[in-house]
Amino acid sequence: MAADCDAIVIGAGHNGLVCACYLARAGLDVVLLEKYGSIGGMSNTEEVTLPGYHSDTHAICIQFANFSPVPDELGLAEYGYQLLRPDPCWSHAFPDGQAITVFRDIDRTCQSIARFSQRDAETWRSLYEEFLQHKDAINASLNSPPPSFADQAAQQQAPDGPDHFRLEMQSLRSWCHETFEAEETRCLASAWGVHVGAAPDDVGGGSIACLFSMVVQHFGNNVVKGGMRNLPLSLAGFLEAHNGSIRVDADVKRILIESGRAVGVQLDDGGQIRCRKLIASSAHPRHLVLDLLGEDQVGPTIARKMRLYEVGEPVMVIYLALDRPPEFKAGSPVNQSVYMHPSGHSLEYYSRIFSDARGGLLTEHPFALVCNDVAGDPGRAPAGKGLMKLVVQPLPWHIAGDAAGRIKGTNWDEVKEPFADRVIEQMTRDDIPNLADSIVKRVVHSPVDIARLLPSAVQGTNTHGATLPYQVGAMRPIPELGGYRSPIDNVYLCGAGSHPGPGVTMAPGRNAAQVIYDDLGLTFA
After folding, report:
1. 474: helix, coil or strand?
2. β-pair type (45-46, 55-56)
3. Could you tell me if 182 and 213 lie in one domain?
4. In 3D, which of 366, 453, 365, 357 has the Cα closest to residue 398?
5. Residue 265 has pLDDT above 90, yes or no
6. What is the CATH number of the domain that holds 13?
């Protein structure tokens, strides 16, 4: 049977698109297949609540992607990609109406922190200066395939190697208590741990909180003008301009293997697409290994390891169309922050929500990342209106009960609305007094809803696997697949289940392309 193309890429999230673009740039005939009805995956924008209210369905801000060379290398501005750079970067609010705000101007940030601790303000400045010294090295580590174990060992022999390794292993609690004196500053940094599923006593949480904090201090919480969807749309524009093609509603059932090599895919509707050279997958690595390839192809050892691959805690998303902008108890500049993290005044607040989630309980005082869409891009909603998204995490996948003893039921379809009520009531009481009265439409996606909508959101998660110390770098997702290569020599991983992991970074797709170029004898430039 004649081949239909040179390369097939599975999954049209932003990483799959990035990989496909680089393959097309090399002159390969690329077909990109997406199960969902539109491209974007978790970097999408939809009118979830009401017409005219454009919600970023998952990712809303460009953070680590500010390191990425992809927009310049692919000329994405020509295809509609444009960043807005709102200020402040983010705020952290407490129930008593106090808040810390991080601004693009480091002096203003330090002034905000100094209201709680002058020493912490000086420490924050020192951390930022240290970040600037290491920024180029961080950039290189994100936008290159992960180092081998031998290279990592060599790096630890450098003068600062032991201290760097210690930070990478340090828990959030340890790092925060060692670094800051005010509990409020500790909470400011620790909220970033929630984004990647790091509880205060988890190994490795300290370095995550430090890096996230400094990256956003430096680059800001930038948003894509018109919605995050314009990132995948710009990538699609580049791909199509370089003779690549995209098919949506194309559910890949399995990868076809002949004589130890991938020769194409079979779709759920029975059709086949054949390829001459390779297949790259941005699907969840568990789905790739266990479903698309199967144990017969990868062998029992890899199949067993992928079944044990930890996916992390799921999330719930509450989309809100508002009849006016939110008015935070803390006032300005929190009102102008595109991100707001609310919490109690202690690290024990974070300990409790993770303990509840891991014990199967709906927590009594949930954490919700508050995305104030209109603060970042006023065009997301009609004039004078408000648009918010609350990302509630961590949560249990299997519900054993309610920590407060008030919500009955253990099925997400039954409990999602009562639990969303709890989130809104808490947010209205502690942070946004006008929230409940300003809601004109609410849409709740439980972890189960998210898993139904997106095949890559295994068990309602948004990270393609937990970012644990033994599931990062060359060990992500597992050591045998840690360099973007699968057990089938022309099947590659190019999604967030590979280094450097989740979030909008564009790095897994580009890094995988570098590996593919090398295997094909091409020069990546």
Report:
1. helix
2. antiparallel
3. yes
4. 357
5. yes
6. 3.50.50.60
In angstroms, the CA 393 to CA 391 distance is 6
Alpha-carbon gap, residue 463 to 468, rounded angstroms: 11
Please determine, for residue 154, whether its predicted confidence score (pLDDT) is greater than 70.
no
pLDDT mean over 144-159: 74
Range of the domain at 254: 5-47+228-310+464-520
Whether residues 389 and 407 fall in one domain: yes
Residue 320 shares a structural domain with residue 412: yes
- Let me know how long the chain is: 525
Measure the CA–CA gap between 415 and 400, rounded to whole angstroms: 12
Q: How far apart are CA 252 and CA 36, in angstroms?
A: 11
Phi, psi of 55 (to 5 degrees): -95, 130
In this prediction, residue 200 carries a pLDDT of: 95
Put simply, whether the predicted model's pTM sits higher than 0.70 gets the answer yes
**C-alpha–C-alpha distance, residues 458 and 14, integer Å:** 18
Q: What mean pLDDT is predicted for residues 40-51? A: 96
CB 498 within 8 A of CB 18: no
Q: Average pLDDT, stretch 265-270?
A: 95
Mean pLDDT estimate for the chain? 95
pLDDT tens string 416-440: 999 999 999 999 999 999 999 999 9
Residue 299: CB atoms within 10 A of its CB come to: 11
- In degrees to the nearest 10, what's the CA dihedral of 288, 452, 475, 200? 180
